[in-house]
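Reference record
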Amino acid sequence: MAKKKFKRSNTDFRNEREDKEIDIVVSAKTIGQKKLIISIKNNDIVICTGPAGTGKTYLSTGTALQYLFAPQSNIKKLVFMRPAKEACDEHLGALPGELSEKMSPWIKPIMDNMEEFISTSIIKNLFWEKKIEVVPLAYARGRSLNNAFIILDEAQSTTDKQLLMVLTRIGKGSKMVINGDLDQKDSVNLNGLDDAMNRLQGVQGLGIVNMDGEDIVRHPMIKEILKRYKGECQKSEHTSENYNTTDFTEDLEEPQLPIRAEDLILRTA
């Protein structure tokens, strides 16, 4: 006798979270991380650069989840974007399956970060309810993303036209964070991240945050490894002295205390 499949409805998933308060806590461990969190709160679009291990994606994802679960928030869904490009010119060939299966390698880093804040079951529920969306850049053209928290990772691998297309997807009630590492760009030519930082300094409602080796928290060895590969400890040419970054009025001498959803100042459209 064939085994009957049980199909779960959206109501089933929603009831699993009913009566269960989800409290997302995002803690800044460095001054640069604190600047990023404050800039996201104070701006509609934030461009963040920094070396590997500084927590760019981690903090962006945690803050996005805070907005998603905060009472009376404008944010109704999270949209993640990544360039579908292999690192260091390594070509894996065409991946099998449908679009969701093809995007699986790019979804995994997003899942890893979300699992630091919420359980895997809740993440799956959010995907089922279409409150989390992963969009290849090729499928973003022409869309208007309203009431969404948009995160673009690996922006150093975009072209200027691609990043312009992403920037113009932001709609009413939305926020956008663009993350990248200028030391990991795949081309010596000017990329989309370089171009945007040159063009957009001083735009009202857009913040630029530059992290450096002092903000690396993933593992203490990463800082020394990056120093050795660079040959000497130098700041990137893209520093806060070169770009008009957000003017923070808060004291930045001490790392930020944990931020909870109820502490967020949610902007209205």
Summary: The radius of gyration is 19 Å.
